Amino acid sequence: MDALLESDNPNQALVRRARYIQGERSVDLIGHLHCDVFNQDKFLINGVEIRMRLVRSRDAFCLMESNSTSKIRILDASLLIRRAKISPAVLVEHARMLSKTTAKYPLTRVEVKTFTIHAGVVGESIDNAIFGQLPKRVIVGFVDNKAFNGDRKLNPFNLKNYGINFFSLYADAVQIPSRPLQPNFSKDHPLYVEAYNTLFSGTGNHFLNEGNSISREDYAKGFTFFAFDLTPDLSANCAGHWNLVRHGSL
């Protein structure tokens, strides 16, 4: 995934994306804003003021090339918002309820934490990675520090396996999973299907006729995530399912 266009065996996905901007051509993109308030399924009532601040990543983080000559310039940006026409009777009921209480929106808060592991370390234990309210799902990945901070020659989304052969979580001294993951990412004897299976069991795709576009072979080649559902009934993916808030350390 770190192979550049000039290499003998370039990243084919990078080659396809590069075609969009060859010859300094403009490209149009569209996507979803991954903010907690936009990931809940309730409409916002009238009169709610929302302020958003979008901060661009550095060019060194967004671009992959062997030199430092290219730049990204945003020519135009638009925010697409869906509006709904509500029945007058429903609006009257909303006004009646708002005279007695406030509108409540259940949000699933998403938080990204980063920890630095020094090169050459054989084993690492991170105590109190999360202290206080425990999450209902944890997804762990490892990436090169230079790529994470922005390097034009490295892919910041190349989640390498780094030869990990032991992985486990401890929530209030309870080991998750009960038997730690012990994958083998060697080329001669690759045995990591149990770790690969966490992409399904930890994300709600388990036993469903759905995938995640990550093949078994690709998992060890830049898509090495470890996903864990910490809810008692494995319901972290259920939007309408409530779990008691737990506090502790992870």
Instruction: Tally the beta strands.
Output: 6
Largest sheet: 2 strands, antiparallel
Number of helical stretches of at least 4 residues: 6
Please identify the structural class as seen in this structure. Answer: alpha+beta
Taken from the alpha-carbon principal axes, the silhouette is globular
The total domain count is: 2
Radius of gyration computed on alpha carbons: 22 Å
Fraction of residues in helix: 10-25%
First-last Cα distance: 31 Å
Average pLDDT, all residues: 89
Provide the low-confidence segments as ranges.
none
Amount of beta strand: 5-15%
SSE ordering: HHHEEHEEHHEE
Order of neighbouring strands in the sheet with most strands: 1-6
Architecture overview:
The chain has 250 residues and is an alpha+beta fold. It has six helices and six strands, in the order αααββαββααββ. The strands form three sheets. Strands 1-6 form a two-stranded antiparallel sheet. A two-stranded antiparallel sheet has the order 2-5. A two-stranded antiparallel sheet has the order 3-4. It is globular and about 65 Å long.
Per-chain topology:
Layout: H1 12-18, H2 59-62, H3 88-98, E1 131-133, E2 137-141, H4 145-149, E3 167-171, E4 174-181, H5 193-201, H6 216-219, E5 225-229, E6 247-249
Antiparallel strand pairs: 1-6, 2-5, 3-4
Question: Characteristics of this structure?
Answer:
250 residues, alpha+beta, 2 domains, two-stranded antiparallel ribbon, 6 strands, 16% helix, 12% strand, RNR_small_fam
